[in-house]
Amino acid sequence: MIDWIKNAPEITDPGYQPKDDLRHRAADGGRARDSLFWQVIMPDHELGFQCYLYLTGTGKAGFNLILWGTERKPYVLELVQGDVPDTMDFDDFRLGDLRVRQPADQKTARIAFESDKVKLDYSFEGFHAPFSYRSNPDGLPSWFADNRLEQSGWVKGYIEWDGKRIELDRIGHRDHSWGVRHWQVPQHWKWLVAYAPDASRIVNAWIWMAKGEWGVGGYVVRDGELVPIASVDQKAAFDDDMTQRSIDVQITDIRGGTCSMQMERFGLVKLPTGGRHATMIMEAACRAKIDGRDAAGQFECQWPQSYLDAMIELNKTSR
User: Where in this chain does the record put each DUF7064 domain (predicted)?
Assistant: First the structure.
């Protein structure tokens, strides 16, 4: 395990309550929801893994569990929706074949899943206090969430699929947000997480554009200390179908310190969402470098589907 990483003393109060890692029940007809996310990227196996769970105040729930690599199709894509009783909370949560045990300690989680395609046991233990984008100079926009917990940590367990088994004993990441997400507001975002195997360097960066303005959230970990990000210069490369290929990021933290990060995709999965405000989220599993140190990472892009379609068509006609 990694030694506990201390937060920089300049970090503002993240606004977490003792039970914020449990369920939030808003009396708004189900518009507000909890969103929980766990991941681990494994360049040595050319694999990316994530599990995303949402739960509304009315009990409607759904999750995706994805294992992907260099192939066009993910190796595993489990999608489940259903309803859970009001008495159920994240410290003992079940939906279909998924079981979650995430207590109110703001530090640990365990996710288990078993189907005819995959078997998963994923245990997470954070090695720094949960971070909120409220602690960044640009803050957490109200269209995104009431609050959002981001945490890097150690993952143990295993994944089995198609006669293969990968043991998990490495760094991963989780987040938990709650509130109402207004999908019509963001014009684009990039969410990045990367980590050196020894945790000497970790980056979590969220770069968003909404209402014509840019904002940045996240943190850098350097040699045992976590410092919030103040600004990001970034240059991404995209294929003709607008899938993200790579990104070069230059980060300045709130102390004026700098960090350089490069990410290169080895695997991609697309997660379209239909409806009135149709959105495409694309997840790239990446090899990375942080200040020249080898790292693993995930590079997510969000686009309004109509804009994405227009750009893909433009790329076709302008070759």
Answer: 182-304
> How far apart are alpha carbons 19 and 25 in whole angstroms?
12
Contact 295, 195 (CB under 8 A): yes
DSSP 93-125: EEETTEEEE--TTSSEEEEEEE-SSEEEEEEEE
- The structure tokens 């804009």 sit at 307
Burial 61-80 (b: 16+ CB within 10 A, else e): bbbbbbbbbeeeebbbebeb
113 contact partners, CB below 8 Å, separation of at least 6: 51, 65, 78, 97, 98, 99, 119, 120
Evaluate whether 194 touches 206 at the Cβ level (below 8 Å). no
Residue 67: name the closest of 267, 244, 273 by CA: 267
Residue 108: closest CA among 122, 123, 93, 90: 123
Token pair for residue 304? 């309004």
pLDDT in tens, 214-233: 999 999 999 899 999 999 99
Whether the CB-CB separation of 316 and 220 falls below 8 Å is answered with no
- What are the pLDDT digits (tens) for 62-101? 999 999 999 999 999 999 999 999 999 999 999 999 999 9
118-126 and 108-114 strand pairing: antiparallel
CB environment 198-235: b (16+ within 10 A), e (fewer): ebbbbbbbbbbebeeeebbbbbbbbeeebbbbbebeee
- The answer on pLDDT for 27 being more than 90 is no
Domains of the chain: 13-317 (2.40.370.10)
Q: Per-residue pLDDT tens for 137-175?
A: 999 999 999 999 999 999 999 999 999 999 999 999 999
